[in-house]
Amino acid sequence: MTKPGTVSARHTVAVGIPTSGRSEIVSAVVPDLVRQTRKPDQLLICAPTSDDVDMATLADLPFPVRFLQSERGLCRQRNAIIDAIPDIDIVLFLDDDFLLAPTYIVELERLFLQYPSVDVVTGTVLADGATGPGISVDEGLALLCGIPAFAHELSVRETYSGYGCNMAVRMSTVRAGALRFDERLPLYGWLEDLDFSRTVSRFGQVVASPQLLGVHLGTKNGRISGLRLGYSQIANPIYLARKRTMTWRHALIQMARNVAANTSKASRAEPWVDRKGRLRGNLLALRDLCTGHLSPLNICGMN
């Protein structure tokens, strides 16, 4: 288990949010950062076009806000954020539909100061709309209402991977190792958080903290198509296993679980999940695996 170290004076913390085609949710969620007891030193929002973000709704936030333009793709957009903050100590990557408890950033800074061997931290998700129909902004705020500040010592536990909807990274390690998110995982970047976490784990520890609390709304608009996601559910684990950031055992379990869920639920799918599209994508990927044409990049030519 990670041991606390000597607490330094202060770290600079940037919040980085990649987004695409979800201007309304950005305008509804991002202003909630004003409730943080420790404000970010800057906020960076990265999107393919200026139409993806209504910057006017963010003009009065009490910290610097920067808009970055990048080609669409979660990994490309996160890399653009990394490149834009050469002097920042910590970057907190958030999904555009993730709400933070008011003490999240202050506890995050304290954690990185106390644990110098930690390079990736992920928080505790109180509710995750990504696994269901989604959570409204009002519902998410209500879940976070009244959470007290932690008076006890920070605690962490080692984890296999950060969860990309709320994942903080020590930038000195990123710079020293010239680390980047793998842009061969295009668009939604399925499992990009696991790939990056396992890469960083060669330098320092990857941990989760019960003191960093938030709610992932799991907003459905602007998500990747079922066909593309289904293809990625096969192509990406195999790609990561081949590059050794995922074990073959883990990859096979992940693929089997996804194919089984898509097959069993195709005729009685949840209203918010395109199971038939995912299953078709699974089958196309398995066909490409057999013919030697499997690649995560193949989803770029799909609808």
From TrEMBL:
Alphabetical list of SUPFAM superfamilies matching this protein? Nucleotide-diphospho-sugar transferases
Domain of life per record: Bacteria
Name this protein carries in UniProt: GT2 family glycosyltransferase
